[in-house]
Design goal:
168 residues, alpha+beta, three-stranded antiparallel beta sheet, 7 helices, disordered N terminus
């Protein structure tokens, strides 16, 4: 797709924490990969990108820059609304499930809390682990139930009561 168009694009990235990033590029795939590998903008080094929501082709770099400046002045809701009207919505770069990585500190915390609950003969499914993290570690943002479930499956840590990786 990018090789055919010699123009520029304005694009909107959604980061793993839900924040949005607007940028310009002549090559969407290459630019997404730079952001994802930490070689893009400082914003995406701090807010890891998840997917490109939309892109709009422009005739020139200056046109793309003008639209980028306008987009950066909008609220997140307004950015999503505008991007929803852009022609490129499908087939844009994104992180595949196999590329998503959970930070090791999160994995260790989930394992620690699960072991604690398991040894106390308490429910140790993903929801229970998330609730325990939320109450016992108030300065830590608890990972989602889906993330915790994925960690439990990956580490083959079954629920003591049910013998499966699923909730009770």
């Amino acid at each position: 797709m990018n090789g055919e168009n010699k123009g520029w694009f304005v694009y909107l990235l959604e980061c793993q924490n839900g924040r949005l990033y607007t940028g310009i590029t002549p090559d969407l795939e290459l630019r997404f990969n730079k952001h994802y590998t930490g070689k893009g903008a400082m914003f995406t080094r701090l807010n890891k990108p998840l997917r490109m929501i939309a892109a709009k082709p422009c005739e020139s770099r200056s046109e793309a820059s003008r639209l980028e400046i306008q987009m950066k002045k909008l609220t997140p809701w307004q950015k999503r609304y505008m991007a929803n009207r852009w022609p490129l919505q499908e087939g844009l770069p994104k992180v595949t499930d196999s590329e998503k990585q959970v930070p090791s500190e999160v994995v260790e915390l989930v394992e620690l809390v699960r072991l604690h609950l398991y040894n106390q003969d308490l429910p140790c499914g993903a929801t229970a682990i998330r609730g325990h993290i939320a109450t016992q570690y108030p300065t830590v943002k608890p990972p989602s139930v889906a993330t915790i479930s994925a960690i439990l499956r990956q580490k083959k840590l079954t629920n003591k009561r049910t013998g499966s990786y699923e909730e009770e």
